[in-house]
Amino acid sequence: MKILVYGMGAIGSVFAARLSTVHEVVGICRGEHYKVIKDRGLKLSGETQGTFIIKVAESLDDVGEEYFDLVLVTTKSYDLRKSLKKIKESISFSHILAIQNGLNTAEILTEEIRNADILVGVTYNAATLEAPGIVKHAYKGKTYIASLRGSEFQMRLASVLSDVGLPSEVPQDIFKIIWEKAAVNCVINPLTAILYEKNKIIVELWDELLPIIESIIDEIIEAAKIFGVNLPQKECLIEKVKKVSIYTGENISSMLQDLQKGKRTEIDALNCYVANVLRRKGHNETVNWLLCTIIKELEKKSIKS
Ligand SMILES: NC(=O)c1ccc[n+]([C@@H]2O[C@H](COP(=O)([O-])OP(=O)(O)OC[C@H]3O[C@@H](n4cnc5c(N)ncnc54)[C@H](OP(=O)(O)O)[C@@H]3O)[C@@H](O)[C@H]2O)c1
After folding, report:
1. 252 DSSP 8-state letter
2. Which among 26, 96, 212, 235 has the fewest CB atoms less than 10 Å away?
3. In DSSP terms, which residues pair with 135 in a beta bridge?
4. Which residue from 74, 177, 258, 268 has its CB within 8 A of the most atoms of ligand 1, so it is best to mutate?
5. For residue 269, which of 295, 237, 243 has the smallest C-alpha distance?
6. Could you give the domains of the chain?
7. pLDDT confidence of 14, banded at 50, 70, 90?
8. How far is 132 from 144, CA to CA, in rounded Å?
9. Angle formed by the axes of helices 153-163 and 10-19, to 10°?
């Protein structure tokens, strides 16, 4: 297959490297990361190891009017819409898979891409960009994908990914999986960012934080229901938050990392999204709204400084 990986940062580099062992891959990345990969290859450590020689470009303008069987978009959620607009005006393709954390990927894909098979993905892999051209594949987890227009390609793609060592499956209900992962992220990301601590702070302050965790989860269950998504019981989701905070205890959440680097966070696709869904139903004063507001204030300060 001929595959374009658009937004080849941390997670995109893992997918590009693995896929490049069997398929023809072109990666779109920029800055120093692009220069290092172009000159010396992409170096992976952890669950994926080695140096991978991948054809990269800084922009689709440098790729030309090529045809791709699959486009994999691994930008942050806030870059997704702009990226899709650029992709659809620049290249031809039959399938496009977008993998982001957050709740708006399927919506944006459906709105922007009309003439191709659109697939949405959730991945439990974890990766960090350690330096330009150097990525650590920190955790090898499962990837869930589903075609939003019901194409058969979803099964083939799950095998393609699994065959290159990225275990993947087509779940019965991708939206349940998207909301479940977002529920955990909506708790751990903003709370660790506000507390300016590693993920283990959630378990260390468990009793104190429990009331706010319960409110976040209650609201997410209510918002998911509006889309016909029935999440597991509140207690199960809270237990999941606790487990994830324990086994990722030494990690710094992506939201805190973004604030530390003066970068934009993915709060719009997480707590702000939940809050806006509830606001449209007349439920204005939510904890998710409060967290959305606080993180946006912290973002303004960190981006300025
Ligand atoms: N990392 C993980 O462990 C992990 C795990 C599960 C899910 N996710 C989700 O996967 C998504 C990607 O996360 P990530 O950690 O891989 O983020 P990331 O390292 O920031 O990767 C995104 C990449 O896209 C690039 N990009 C955006 N617009 C571009 C454009 N127009 N042209 C070229 N490059 C462009 C960014 O470049 P710049 O840096 O120059 O902006 C960046 O390198 C997020 O939604 C995240 O929540 C991540």
Report:
1. P
2. 235
3. 44, 129
4. 74
5. 295
6. 2-169 (3.40.50.720), 174-304 (1.10.1040.10)
7. very high
8. 28
9. 90
Pairing verdict, β 50-52 and 92-99? unpaired
Q: Which two tokens stand for residue 61?
A: 């303008």
Structure tokens at 195: 């507390």
Which amino acid makes up residue 160?
Answer: V
Least reliable range by pLDDT among 7-16, 61-70, 103-112, 264-273: 61-70
Give the separation between CA 123 and CA 162, rounded to whole angstroms: 12
- Residue 249 CA: distances (Å) to CA of 2, 66, 126, 200, 267: 38, 44, 14, 4, 21
| Partner residues linked to 25 by β-bridges | 3
Give the pLDDT band (50/70/90) at residue 66: confident
Cβ burial 104-120 (10 Å sphere, 16+ → b, else e): bbbbbbeebbeebbbbb
Residue pair 87/112 in contact by the 8 Å Cβ criterion = no
Take atom 29 of ligand 1 and give the residue whose Cα is closest: 7
Q: Is 228 a pocket residue for ligand 1 (Cβ < 6 Å)?
A: no
